[in-house]
Amino acid sequence: MAHMSARPHIVLNAHLLAGDASYRSAGIHGYLYNTLAHLPEVAPEFSYTVLVGQGNPPARADLTVHRSRLHTQNPVARIIWEQIAAPRTLASLQPDLLHGMAFALPLRWRGPSVVTIFDLSFIRHPERLSAARRLYLHTFTRASARRARRVIAISRSGRDEIHELLGVPLEQIDVAYPGVGESFAPLPPAEVEDFRREKGLPERYILYLGTLEPRKNLDTLIRAYARLPQRRDVKLVLAGGRGWGTDAIFALIEKLGLEGDVIRPGYIAGNELPMWYNAAEIFAYPSVYEGFGMPLVEAMACGVPVIASNTSSLPEAAGPAGVLLPPTDVEAWVGELARLLDDEAVRQNLARRGQQHARKFRWTATARQTADAYHRALSVRG
Q: What pairs with residue 115 in β-bridges?
């Protein structure tokens, strides 16, 4: 272990960073990239070394990048690197603190550490993962959470879950909410209309954005949409890449005779997302479980009213500006979607409140909350 210098040396394991720029706005990749982009400016009292494989961290003079030769985009290679190669790298770097930025730490690392746990879906929804991945996350996340001096969650709901399911004392868990990028904002109507024409999008549509898989509870949204009195005038856009169990979703669309009404554009690149939100009438997010639910905040930042499930972290993401409903109450979803589609004044009111709420989520705040966790970890003795 290095002797504590005037500028403590933080090493961050960011091997889950993607190499492809289009991923930077998505999920864990976006969270890692944007935290790294802002940490040095909000906490210059530390020096930073970022450990990556093929991923591209932000190009900053105050971030030293240490690149592995292993192709750690492959999950097995990443685990081998993390548990076998990383301890050797750390022995040469001599950090004052190690931050495992996604779920796990090397078990052979004995120095001070912080670990970020995005969600516990591998416990709550184990059916999503292969048996091997589930075993790895169960074993290493649990062990890492217990050995880390601080654990970072990305919502209060996540903090409570880590305490309840992994047995970490609440006072050891910090919350660093995700931020929303500045590109998520209301755009000029003329630009939005050009985009609508270019993509062949209808005048009015309800937007869902996220992986197409059962945990996202798209059954409720599709069934509610099928029963809307306004269905002839309003389309449903299910945007996002295929997950596991996607075929069942497509089969339901077919069974309800909605093929002509449901638009499936597939994965949407990050630079196009603000346009898709801006062109939508309503953003609907029926997911039953999320670590945070970033699309809700992005939609609100773009001035779109949101409807979401009232479970897990989604009430935190939506705040007082979202309409929250029980995830399986199709009747309630039909009623609220119909009410919003019929009442422009209600939509405008929700949109205004949503923009105010979204302003609270900034990547500088995420970085500040992360740095605060470092200070707390380094102030612990032994």
A: 100, 151
